[in-house]
Amino acid sequence: MGTYNSFEQDVEVLYLRHNNWLKGWLQRRLGQGADADDLAQDTFVRIIRSRSPVNELKQPLAYLATIANSLLVNRWRRLAVERAYADALATQVEHFELSPEERYLLIETLTEIDELLHGLSPRIREIFLLSQLDGLTYKQIAAQLGFSVNQVQKSMLKAFSRCYASLFE
Amino acid sequence: MNPVPASRPRELPIPADVRDQALAWLTLSQSGDISETELQQLQRWRQSDSEHERAWQRMTGLPGVLKSRAQALENPVARSALQHSRYVSGNRRQALKILVGAGLLGTIGWQTKDAHWLQAGLADLSTATGERRHHRLADGTQLWLNTDSAVDIRFSINERRIVLRYGEVDILTASDPAQRPLLVQTHDAVLRPLGTRFTVRSDEAGSGTFLSVSSGRVAASVPGNPAQQIVEAGYQAYIGAEGVSRSQPTNPASVAWIDGFIVAERMSLGDFVVQLARYRSGVLRCDPQVADLLLTGSYPLDDSERIFSLLEDSLPVSIVRRTRYWITVTARRSA
Lengths: 169, 335
Hints:
A: Arc Repressor Mutant, subunit A, B: Jelly Rolls, twelve-stranded mixed β-sheet, 10 helices
């Protein structure tokens, strides 16, 4: 029980010392007030959940900034996905909308997949989805999109490399 | 991101070269057209080393990661959104860099010739057959990539390293504000330019490296051997298993590709066709009967149809097209 308590105390110390700095740091990046407080909270929640010791941090500010930054990135990624979703919805001819809950879960999943495919161009994403979701062969994809089989193969390699790096590196 | 079935935290990392081989096998295995022979090769590869098998196990988890979320993408709006969502962070280059493992050069030579697609897929910059490209790097150095070529750019705080995986590149160096030395590495040579413009060609491991210096000087050496030989402007040298050859005067025609030409000066048709074939997909052959004919002129690389008609106009040859990708230059039959 000793270690459990001392971990919580360590986080508390970190919070008291650096929460204001972190809020300022986030505010500079977000440009508005309310979100910065939320993200600062989330940063500490993530530290508590990870249960990695924080009592011997050499550079506590850098540590906080790293975690906060990944939350920021996630937020921006989510916004980009939401925007793309709204754009895609706008081009639909038929009426098509989900309940707010369904939409929330869908955006959540899309954000996860987007992170997995991070940095890949729309073209590579399309090829990857045609292969992995629709089960088309590389030859069929090449014929459908007007590429060479070689280009399809290269795109698939890039996509798998990207997935691998997202998950393991 | 939720943890994936295949991922176990704190598992030992897979070495970069094994990872890249496993990624290549995974890509092949998902093609829908993998052959019986390739399946057997994959089997042998997995059994030849326990690290291979471990990497393979990890790879086989990848397709499932997407499939487990497939339901979300049944909705066409969601799918379109995913395709076009482009959150791009400043670290994007950095992220893609991870893909280029340090030990890749050479180890990927496991299927050298067929592996060009693989190497090009992993390289930072590459060109397809018939394509030529110009790039300006962050330090101001300029690269002209010739047809079917691939390079990696590995700039660190200590050095600027350019790795030519295969093909040909012309490099105009810029002086670095941070004073880092520039290095050009191929399968069989390490080149240290000293304020310079020069061309490097290296096709595959064991084929040797061709160096041609147009201005400044380049210190050429063999990996693992500190002995250097200086190649001056206007000279060229060949670097192979026997080390660095003696310098010889360059032929300006050898770098005419940068301006988009093949320049022939009393060149044999046979040699000319070999040159031209580098820029075209498919088979381009010259009938031995006409291979010794000589030709002179500048031929535009981007227009091989025009080259063919120029050949037919100036030499007693005809161009036989079996298919678009199988072309033979033969003696003209007199009518």
